[in-house]
Amino acid sequence: MNDLAIITPKVRITPLGLDVLEDLTFEEWSELAPHLGQAARSISFVIGDWLIYGDRFAVQFPLPGFTEKLPRTEPERYEKAMVNTTLDRVTLRNYAYVARNVGKSCRNDFLSFDHHRALASLDETSQRHWIATALAEIDAGRRMTVRRFRRSIEAGRVLGVEELYTDTGDTGLTNHIPFVNGLVGWWARMRKAGWLRTATAEKRAALKRDLQPVADIISEL
Questions:
Q1: Which among 1, 4, 5, 95 counts the fewest CB atoms within 10 Å?
Q2: 2-12: per-residue pLDDT in tens?
């Protein structure tokens, strides 16, 4: 966390904040901003990736050379993580959820962790599409706040700022896009997990029956 000392020895990061050891010039003060922003954006993913790495201890138990009982179950690992990080369980689960569902190749350091949180239920292709869309808006000088980003994903198109405070469906009805995105994201995860390769004929038939209501909706259109 004290990497800022590499930029200037005049500052030091401590658990309680930023210590300014010597007077900073305006330029030195300004140069710290992007590094502080990057640290704030990255720490959530760092902790999430750390938690995911801990999953391997459930399958590599006991480890050769270890005499201490390792936290094998997920509740045990989160309990240990809560003690070691002093973060609550909800925060840790949120970090791990986003890190697990938004791979490193899809992450972009121009967007906040909350932007990536809005992408977590989508498949990788959709994630890349919306990241590119957000960056295009930013390049054009139009702010892509988390609220605008999330609402645009729900609407299935980029919303103007004025539309954030109106019903994007213009009908007073529940927007169907979030449900479609959720279903598409679920299926992408099923395929990635190899379900199509391992599912028996009975499981395939059962899933088709479960999805029949979707086919019925399409047939009515």
A1: 1
A2: 454 455 788 88
